[in-house]
Amino acid sequence: MFQVKEIYYTLQGEGARTGRPAVFCRFTGCNLWTGREKDREKAVCNFCDTDFVGVDGPGGGKFNDSKELLAAISNCWPKDLEQKYVVLTGGEPALQINQDFIGGLHNIGFEVAIETNGTLPIPSNIDWVTVSPKSNSVLKVESGDELKLVFPQEGVDPRKFQNLPFKNFFLQPLDGEERTINTQKTLQYCLENPLWNLSLQSHKYIGIR
């Protein structure tokens, strides 16, 4: 069974593929935090800018098997449009997906991306891998298409990751009450360390999902 918070069609708002049309499939659950406020203080990672609790979002639900979920994702892509693209995110999608599920997405014409915290193994047949490391966790996925680090994080130095074999390196300002301050800190770090590029959550600025 797959448990999914929401499935919807939008534009990718972050990282190297900002602006690309995509179906987002947000899985419930995460191995670093339950997502519930009462557990925040004891969580390995106690921040997240998305709601991944429950299955009550648009298009969300409990899917008995991959066939049901594949159909739900396919139905979100506009009819007769090519270049199908799906982003598996969460929560932590690596808790639920496997090689066969990714193969099923390929079979119905989708290019597949994942946004993961990188602490769990992921299927090898994913087309685009975005890893977003979190403090106090051990990185298991140490290569991919982009490393997108939320900044600043207490106890996390970007230099720790800069020699890993990723194609793109992004710093993304930590959202929340201090987003403006964090954005300035991120800008300054990128200016002083040109390996790192700035990633902004453009979907929030233009008012889309």
Explain this structure.
The protein is of the alpha/beta class. It has a single domain (2-148), classed as Aldolase class I (TIM Barrel). 19% of the residues lie in helices and 25% in strands. The protein is built from four helices and nine strands. Strands 3-1-2-4-5-6-7-8-9 form a nine-stranded mixed beta sheet. Strand 8, helix 3 and strand 9 (197-198) form a beta-alpha-beta unit. The longest helix is centred in the C-terminal third of the chain and has 14 residues, at 179-192. The protein starts with a strand and ends with a helix. The model has no long low-confidence stretch (mean pLDDT 93).
Q: Rg from C-alpha positions?
A: 17 Å
Strands side by side in the biggest sheet: 3-1-2-4-5-6-7-8-9
Low-confidence stretches: none
What is the general shape? Answer: globular
The quaternary organization reads as: single chain
